[in-house]
Amino acid sequence: MRPDGNASRPGGAGPRSRLPRALTSTSRRARWHRSRIARALSALLAGLAVWLVAAPLLPHPDESGDPVVVAARDLPLGATVSADDLRVERRPRAALPARVLDRPEAGIGRVTSGPVVEGEVLTTVRFQGPSQLSGLGAGQVAVSVPLAEAGLLPSLEPADRVAVLVAGTGQTVAAAALVLGVNRPGTTLGQTAESGSHVVLALTTEEARAVAATMNAPSGPAGFVLALRAR
C-alpha cells in the first residue's frame, strides 16, 4: 500500500501516464492543440501525395543515354555551322538515328544540306558533301537538278522520294530519286522556278547521264518537273 492509502500499480506508471498531457487531457486547450497537430499532419500528408504524383512529370536532367550533338537553333539550308549553333545533349541510344555526331567539332564549319530545326539530332547526312550518300547503294551519285517550276519546293524536304520528269515531254528520267538537299530562292507555291532553283538528288549513274543528256540536247528543257512520291 502507498502512504496515501492507494494501492500502487505493479511495474510503475501505466502507458497513458507517459504520454504528453496535451495528448491525453480533455480540456478545451488540449483539444485545440490536438486539432492543430491533426491539421498540420493532414497538410503534410496531402503535400507528400501531390509530390509523389507530380515528381515523375517534372523536368529533370537526363543523366542516361549517349552524348550527341543537336542544333541549338533553327538553321536554314546552306548555313555554315558555327560552335554557337550546336550543343551536346544525352539521348537514349535506342532513339538515335544512324551516323550521329558525338562531338561539336564534327559539325563546325560544315554546310547544311537542308533546313534544320532546333533540338534536332545532327547526323552526317544533314551536311553537304560525300556523307550525304552514306548508306546508299553502290553507284549512287549526288546531282544538282534544275527545276522548270517551283510549285513543289515549299513542301519538299531532304529524304523525300521524287520522280524526275522532263519538262514539256513528261519523260521519266528517274522514278524514285532521293532528295538530299533543296534550294528555295524565295519561291512560293504556284510560281515558275526562279534562276538557280534546284534540288540535289541521289541518282544512279544511268539516271545522272539521262539528266545531263537531256539538259545538253539542242532542244533541251529549261529544267525538270518533280513528282513527290509517297514514303
Please explain how this structure is put together:
With 231 residues, the protein is of the alpha+beta class. It contains 3 helices and 7 strands. Strand 4 and strand 5 (172-183) form a beta hairpin. The longest helix is centred in the first third of the chain and has 27 residues, at 28-54. The chain is elongated, with a radius of gyration of 36 Å.
Please tell me how large the radius of gyration is. Answer: 36 Å
Shape from CA axes? elongated
Largest sheet: 5 strands, antiparallel
The sequence of SSEs as H and E is HHEEEEEEHE
Average predicted local confidence, pLDDT: 77
> What's the β-strand tally?
7
Strand content: 15-25%
Poorly predicted regions are 186-195
End-to-end gap:
99 Å
User: Structural class of the helix and strand makeup?
Assistant: alpha+beta
Number of helices: 3
Looking across the biggest beta sheet, what order are the strands in? 3-6-5-4-7
In percent, how helical is the residue content?
Answer: 10-25%
Pick out its properties.
19% helix, alpha+beta, 231 residues, elongated
Secondary structure elements and their pairing?
Elements: H1 21-24, H2 28-54, E1 66-71, E2 86-91, E3 140-146, E4 161-166, E5 172-183, E6 198-204, H3 205-216, E7 224-229
Antiparallel strand pairs: 1-2, 3-6, 4-5, 4-7, 5-6
